[in-house]
Specification:
2 copies of one chain form a homodimer. Helices cover 32% and strands 20% of the residues of chain A. By secondary structure, chain A is of the alpha/beta class.
Chain lengths: 403, 403
């Protein structure tokens, strides 16, 4: 544990209070035109607006001003892990994204099918973007590969992408990609950057040689490149740091995976809509102190550039909000893991609106929840990495620092 | 390069977008009376006020709350260099301020003429503040000194101040001032704090002994002290870090010098007024991606305590602004390097107003550009060291951080 975690952990007390961290993925938005509303401001959100009366509002930088966070850094920051100090490898994230239950010693790799010519030189780094069903077929072929002493998982992802996981003992992952990032040259030889990774390199050489033989007759995906070779970073355990029984309610595998990675219990359920997810919280209310609730579709529609659909998802969250409010959480935080303005069709760097509702909040003037009102809120401009400490403080779970 | 530069550099893409960073030196001000306007708020600035409709406003701490920055730290921060981590030595700053073209290996020293008595004890640390023409005469005398193996430059600055630059090979600059900071004692002996500086100390001893002989008959300036012994700190190169062809348009030598120090091209010109400086930008528009434009006189009048004259300079910038706006930069930032309130007649620690105009800005409610409106802007409270990352993000030059 690093300094701040250690301090928080030392100050943390378990007082049985209840916390809900409601995350709308990519919540932050932009006006389409000067003078216009953002997605959140355009959405009709009477419940959230009413909640501002007993809440403190602010804007939060997720990683650092100007940085557009990926899902990994965005969630790490929200959970209180400095996203520049702590990183989740891309292979691990890919595995989490497809719902693979990664074990601490697994080596996870994101792979691309590619096309090579008779000399082994890459001619297409994405194998003509083969459709997912072609990916699945070739993954079936690759599953034939067996190497003594290691368990191998090959999992389709999408189009030309698939995941490879090696499960064995003493496998390091300090190994650069073998993707040369250009065509006209062969994939790079595998190279261990430390002694612990030498065994992994030997396994990857064997696996890759067999894979090439098996794929040879299956152009355009007649070879593959291995990237983002990584392991579970062994992050400090969230429930231990904060001394809270902690649960995640999410629909998409990625967010269940990131939660699992920090030791948050993932509640299995069949919920799809915000209201259904909130019902899952209700059903499990007594079993946990802290609930992380993840709503995906705000981000999906933001990335699609669909302003109205994103606003509509926010409205559906607002309509369902009484389910959570009726549980009377001591602290309810509503925020995002980054902005995804429909105007930009991508994750963006804009600070994310935050509302923290608690009896201990310094209530402000705003009467609606939106980026503009958050800019004048009493939380001020904060950083995502500090939100958990605020949550702990407002639930009276954090003692005094120093005498 | 340190971590954050490395991250920004890795995420940076060159997409050909155009950026103007317009700096009014010492822009931030204070009301003369409670309820009154600041200099910026008193100035009639219809163009800047109109620009707020498609901009995001905020207030920025230049170094750290309460720190009143000098020109060096103020500009380093603005260029994205942490002004606490990176420092420009005072000898180097003095050399830049007089327009001396410092080479990477030069040792630069700011010197004071002083008065010593028959025993060599200092009686006046500033030699009776001799007028600049007397300074020039004595500098001419000192230029006679020659030492084999090193090229020596002596340059007048102002009144009792002059600059000394040693150009040679293997000269360190880890040497404390020989100014004892008191009278009644002799100047301190030169001392090398590392092995690389021993050669420099030997040269300084020789030079100083000869200087004292030559000055002996020229009281009150019959000796001198050497201070701020320093070299080019070898800062990361701005155009490489940000992947932008970068140019500076400035009138005063100091700001050209600081720009040159980070590798920004300095455009030579005969401009004096803001309008003339903006025309220089226009003439060079196709040659560069990033323009740093420096307006000096806001600071000069602030330091003079001339509230109206400072406001008038701001008005002249506003009147000329259409020259820049017509170039349609993708991002236009208007800010200062620190506050210089006429009320205080000095650089101050007050956060500096910032306006960032871009299609990607989160447009806010303010309809004028001033300290009070900036306090409720959607940029929120930021830090100068983060402005370049924001500029890069808003010009879509910064990729995603993490997956």
């Amino acid at each position: 544990m690093v300094d701040k975690f250690k301090l928080i952990n030392e100050m943390a007390v378990d007082n049985g209070s209840k916390i809900v961290l409601l995350l709308m993925d990519g919540l932050g938005g932009l006006p389409l035109e000067p003078g216009g509303p953002t997605e959140l401001e355009a959405a009709k959100t009477p419940n959230m607006d009413a909640l501002t009366a007993r809440a403190s509002l602010g804007l939060s930088d997720v990683v650092s001003p100007g940085f557009s966070p990926g899902s990994g850094p965005g969630h790490l920051a929200l959970f209180g892990y400095d996203p520049i100090q702590f990183a989740i490898g891309r292979g691990v994230l890919e595995a989490l994204g497809i719902g693979f239950h990664l074990q601490p010693e697994d080596v996870a790799i994101r792979c691309n099918f590619c096309t090579v010519d008779a000399n082994g030189n890459i001619t297409d780094r994405r194998a003509g973007r083969i459709p997912t069903e072609e990916c699945v077929k070739r993954v079936e072929i690759l599953r034939q590969i067996e190497i003594p002493g290691v368990k191998i998982f090959v999992e389709p992802v999408k189009e030309y992408r698939f995941g490879l996981i090696l499960r064995g003992e003493g496998l390091g992952a300090n190994i650069p990609d073998n993707d040369p990032q250009q065509t006209g040259v062969p994939p790079l030889p595998f190279q261990a950057l430390d002694a612990q990774s030498e065994k992994t390199v030997e396994l990857l050489r064997q696996w890759w040689a067999q894979a090439n033989k098996l794929l040879a007759d299956h152009p355009p995906a007649n070879s593959c490149t291995l990237r983002g070779i990584s392991k579970d970073p062994g992050l400090p355990r969230f429930p231990e740091v904060y001394k809270m029984r902690s649960a995640a309610v999410a629909v998409y595998p990625m967010y269940k995976g990131v939660s699992r990675l920090v030791g948050i219990d993932v509640i299995e359920h069949k919920a799809e809509t915000p209201a259904e997810e909130f019902e899952v919280v209700k059903q499990n209310w007594d079993q946990y102190d802290f609930f992380f609730v993840h709503i995906k579709k705000t981000d999906s529609y933001g990335e699609d550039g669909n302003f109205d659909a994103k606003a509509h998802v926010i409205e559906s969250v607002d309509q369902a909000l009484p389910i959570l409010l009726d549980l009377k959480p001591d602290v309810l935080v509503i925020t995002g893991d980054h902005s995804s303005p429909a105007k930009l069709k991508r994750h963006s760097w804009h600070p994310v609106p935050v509302m923290l509702a608690a009896d201990t909040a310094r209530f402000g003037k705003p009467t609606s929840f939106g980026e503009t009102s958050c800019a004048t809120g009493t939380l001020g401009k904060i950083q995502h990495v500090d939100i958990m400490a605020l949550v702990m403080a407002h639930s009276m779970r954090l003692g005094k620092y120093g005498a």
